[in-house]
Amino acid sequence: MTIHHGDRPATSPKLIEAFNGLATSTIGNVLDDLKIGGIGLNLRPVSAGMRFVGAALTVKEVTGAQHAYKASEFGLGAVIDMCQPMDVVVIDNGGQQVSTWGGVASVAAVQNGAAGLVVDGGVRDADEIIELGFPVFSRHIVPLSGKTRVKIIEINTTVKVDGIPVHAGDIIVGDSSGLVVIPLARAAEVARLASELEQQDRQASDEIRKGLSFTEALRKFAKL
Fold it and tell me: Residue 2 in 3-state DSSP?
């Protein structure tokens, strides 16, 4: 089995940590203002409350009928063995309704320190994933196995999830509102601006609790 491996730029832990505590909605406002894109609309967390921040370890898959590929071509073991702390595995399976990830894979990824998983395709063993507390976002939750149906063809190349290009090393943030993808080259700028917006949101909420009307807040805080 030959899998094409791309180069993955190093992502500093400090840069990833700059996004801790920032909501995807707030980051999305910044991405929107900067016309960067990267705002996911169709992939959802397996369970509400799941959240992650990390750097993308990207995976491209193809899918066929049962027995289209050898079980050895599934290739997920190689991906999980590569996982390091603060990695988010980002799998592009073209939105297929077949599971490419389940409970045991989640246990192994957590053991390696992975921060989360994004699949434009399907996952299964949702109850196990929820019990484990591993943040997983996907297009589908299905019981159908990917073994002999799914083949990994690329690792750490540019992929697409929900129509968004994701490069290896890009910053990925997920929470109950959805997903955002921040290009590595713009990440420091986006984190700084999103942090400023987050502070403004907190100030607005505090002033509303003290009697400021929402109309007045909208006037005072232009970015709400």
Answer: coil
